[in-house]
Amino acid sequence: MNIIILGGTGFVGTSLVSRWTRAGHDLVLPTRNPSLARHLAVLPTVRLVRADVHDPATLARLFKDCDVVVNLVGILNERGDSGRGFLQAHTELTRKTVAAAAAAGVARYLHMSALGADEHGPSHYLRSKGLAERIVQSAPPTLDWTIFRPSVIFGTRDSLTNRFAALLRLSRGFMPLARAQARFAPVWVEDVASAFDLALAGSDATSRKTFELCGPEVMTLGELVTVIGECSGTPASVLPLPDVIGRAQAFVMDFLPGKPFSRDNFRSLTVDNVCRDDGFKALGIRPAALRGTMRAWRST
Question: Quick check: pTM over 0.90?
């Protein structure tokens, strides 16, 4: 197939590109800076294209003669706290992408959303993701779509376990933690990639459906940090913060370089990140657990 992957140079995209290259698909990865994705440029059947995917004319040109469009674009923080950055990255880009795909006669559209996405949710992140889902679900009948809503995704190159592991080393294991009681079901990146893989060609099982993707272990954020500490060799001593202090922590970190934690992150954490429906079971995938998987890659 001829596949366009928006956000294909990122964490999940790298896993998809690796397996779809092995399957012989022709992949086009639009990116503002191809030099940052040299590790993918060496793969056969992969073409990096310098492009602004927010430009409708560029999307129309890219989608010509394309079989499948995959939208993996997502941000965890924006400049400021107005919500405009989230709307641009998640909602408006999805609107442009769906319109361009439908106009170009693209057959399949695979969309990465997030567990808890809700246009009436407590954070800009969740609201913008929820609005994007509604746009996909309203696509013309000629565009066959599938939406995936994963919990937090882990893997060797993730920003989740690696960031906490680095923070634990820096703090000698001491971790004051906002919303330590928030619940997650961490999901392995390769299991998420398998879900996209199964939906690639389209079928009655995946056509115009939404799948929630969760790992087999439900744990609080505090427990998650503890597991990361165990697997990375820095035992964690977690100090749960009251919400009033957690909000203050988020406010201060909102202004730090790289925004390690933000007010919007705090608001997202007020909603548990666990599945109501077992999307992996519906797809016939048995997801891997965080503990065993992380220990395996940390030991290599």
Answer: yes
In a domain, 263, yes or no: no
Domain that holds residue 121: 2-151+187-213+273-286
- Tell me the CATH number at 45: 3.40.50.720
* Assigned domain for 20 exists: yes
Pick from 172, 290, 165, 162: nearest CA to 229? 165
CB-facing half-sphere around the CA of 82: CA atoms within 13 A:
5
Length of the chain: 300
Long-range contact set of residues 91-96: C-beta below 8 Å, sequence gap at least 24: 91/128, 91/131, 91/132, 91/135, 92/54, 93/6, 93/53, 93/54, 94/132, 94/135, 94/136, 95/132, 95/135, 96/54, 96/56, 96/59
Q: Where are the beta strands (DSSP E) in the chain?
A: 2-6, 26-31, 46-50, 68-71, 108-112, 144-150, 153-154, 174-178, 183-184, 187-188, 209-213, 219-220, 237-241
Distances (CA, A) of 20 to 16, 98, 100, 106, 205: 6, 22, 23, 18, 20
Q: Which two tokens stand for residue 12?
A: 């999940």
For residue 164, is it within any domain? Answer: no
Residue with structure tokens 């934690």? 261
Strands 68-71 and 2-6 come out as parallel
- 7 in a domain, yes or no? yes
For residues 21 and 44, the answer to whether their CB atoms sit within 8 Å is yes
Whole-angstrom distance, CA of residue 261 vs CA of residue 295: 26
pLDDT, tens only, 126-137: 999 999 999 999
Enumerate residues 6+ apart whose C-beta is below 8 A from 55.
none
Q: Which pair of structure tokens corresponds to residue 112?
A: 């990465």
φ, ψ for residue 136 (rounded to 5)? -65, -45
Q: How confident is the model at residue 299 (pLDDT cuts 50, 70, 90)?
A: low
Domain count, the chain: 1
Distance CA 161, CA 61 (A): 38
